Amino acid sequence: MDSFRDILAADLRNVFLQPGELAELRTVRYDGKTYENIPVSLQDSGLRQRQRNGIDNAQGLFTAHSVLFCALEDLGGKLPKQGNLLEIGQENGFFRPYLIASATHELGMLKLELEANRQ
Length: 119
Known about the structure:
Layout: H1 4-16, E1 24-30, E2 33-49, E3 62-71, E4 85-89, E5 95-106, E6 109-118
């Protein structure tokens, strides 16, 4: 009989990160490496006006907040570091840069909160 952790590990790929269901295949660049066609769930949390300690010399810029879910092993098996750059491939072939605002993992699933500046 499978343990609860074994069942969750199987569900990670078969349910949560199933391309065409809750995830899509994207190429991700992080820490000098390219991870091609990995299943990710990228959720856009919306725009927030950028705040920098009450003083903002670039008014009109907004920070786009997104959350990326993927398997820990698909990004090299290491937890990405807060403050580092991560790029996600877009359908048009370009890569969109994001700053990692926070990174956590649990039972093999990564949750990365990402920020990108927009005008």
